[in-house]
Amino acid sequence: MEPCSFAIVSYYRLKDVSLLDRLCQTLLDHGFSLDEENPDLVLVLGGDGSFLRAIDEHGGKGNYLLINTGHLGFFSDYAIHELDAFLDDILEKDPTFEELPHLAYVSQRSESLAVSDIVVQAEKTIDLTLYLNGRLLSSAKASGIVIGTPASSTAYLGSLDAPAILTAKDIYQFALIAPVRNRLYLNPIEKAVLSAEDVLEIEVRGKASLHLDGMKKTDEISETFQVSLKKSNPLRLIHFRPCDNLKRILRSVSGIEEE
Question: What phi, psi does 252 have (nearest 5°)?
């Protein structure tokens, strides 16, 4: 890879801090430059939560790579014990890039982006009214709703029996959390797959918390907001090994390691 500016992000104390020093110094010795404000390459040492947090703090700018120090490491190509292999690859190989779409969250109060999912969750049931492209879609009482990208289809959405999205990119989906079924709420549309052109509008009535990519944004959301798939300025992952969403799902969910 051609030398570029980089930042190393680690939110947790590593048992061996010399790994961070060696990673940084090796890159500096080969012409890379350290830039913690506006790096071309963001190297994250941690788990998937650390990875999503780094994306949030950098606003999705730059190219990202996760070196997994946790357990699952859904978005990672390397584990921490493979640091030497990673250094060999970044210095000797040309990278490939993978583009992931964002979810755009827009309300009267704020605008945010999510790479994985947007979750509205309540301790008690709340009233949810869903509109699709301005048309009434569903009126339901539930414990919340999860809206997610293909990358999140095997996470919280998967536990709600939403389908796994294996190779498609220009779609997103939602699923209600524990919807009430009675004569007042007859057969609500509990889950659906939407296209990149669809805009989902959600009216929330009742006390609920809002989470974007697993990070709590507020304890009380009782408002109307819109969600859509933002294909412009996609998140860019960098790879030196073959990797795509299907490979990640096979490895993390099915336990299948492809060569």
Answer: -85, -35
